[in-house]
Amino acid sequence: MNIIDSHQHFWNYEPQKHSWIDEEMKSIRRDFLPEELAQVYKENEITGSVVVEADQAESETAFLLSLAKQNTFIKGVVGFVDLKADTIQERLEYFRQFNMLKGFRAVLQSQDPSYMLQPAFLRGIGLLKQYGFTYDVLVFPKHLAAVKELVRKNPDQSFVIDHLAKPYIKAGDIDAWAKDMKELAAFPNLYCKISGMVTEADYKDWKPENFTPYLDVVVNAFGTQRIMYGSDWPVCLVAASYTQVLSIVKNYFSSFTPDEQAAFFAGNATRFYHL
To answer: What are the φ and ψ backbone dihedral angles of 32, each rounded to 5 degrees?
Structure first.
């Protein structure tokens, strides 16, 4: 089966740049580069990937594009650009030359929910569609009301929620998040990545069944045509091996039709990101 990993990262580790890697995650305080992931993909029969920014700077976008040029398994890049910049149109004009650059992301989870509804941010988001760029939405559940407004205001922009919007799996809280996700799924221009789950659970004591209620919510809400597989490698390694992450979703989707599995594991990401 063709499998596209729609969410992974690379970095040359720098303590200041990657300060989000806290003490609990210290096992990933090292470099993670394509040579290592290529071997992981070989072992797990992964066809290709979308690499996503892990540092909010245009230099990160350039770094990922250079890696994509050198490594054919990288099928697309989600980079960073400052959407609030006065020069945003010029920057998008510059970035349109790179066919491997599919879209952008910022760490909205570290901002107040109101940030994504500020006029300058909305102006930047409103420009993406004319260049064919997607937008990855990295948020916590508390941001979902604002995300609804953001998506409603931009019906022609392709959005994807990263990591199921980071539900509180460890605490077992589901109801408020589930209600928001069901409402968000009503917008046809919004997809959802099934990624990053193990790091929202108990790192050392999760079980595959911990994820089932959350998977049920997302799959029932978004259907099988607007969800995509992502590993969140190497962040996932603080709680699980790549093979364990993949097996959670392989087992969950094993009862789905071959067409539905093909859509989840590759087809939807290929369509969304124009891979």
So the answer is: -130, 115
- The alpha carbon of residue 14 and the mean position of all alpha carbons in its chain are separated, in whole angstroms, by 22
d(CA 154, CA 147): 11
Residue 239, SS3?
coil
Give the separation between CA 97 and CA 92, rounded to whole angstroms: 9
Residue 79 φ/ψ, nearest 5 degrees: -100, -165
> Which CATH code is given to the segment(s) 4-273?
3.20.20.140
Other beta carbons within 10 Å of 27:
12
Peptide linkage before 234 cis (omega within 30 of 0): yes
Whether residue 109 contacts residue 137, with contact meaning beta carbons closer than 8 Å, is answered with no
- pLDDT tens, 245-275? 999 999 999 999 999 999 999 999 999 999 9
- Average confidence (pLDDT) over 123-140: 98
pLDDT tens digit string along 197-213? 999 999 989 999 999 99
Spatial CA neighbour of 134 closest among 106, 159, 99: 159
| Residue 126 region by backbone torsions, left for phi larger than 0, else alpha for psi between -120 and 50, else beta | alpha
50-105 per-position pLDDT tens digit: 999 999 999 999 999 999 999 999 999 999 999 999 999 999 999 999 999 999 99
Q: For the chain, which residues make up each domain, given as ranges?
A: 4-273
Please answer whether residues 39 and 96 qualify as being in contact, where contact means their C-beta atoms are separated by less than 8 angstroms.
no
pLDDT in the model for residue 99: 97
Those residues whose C-beta lies under 8 Å from the C-beta of residue 183, and which sit 6 or more positions away, are 148
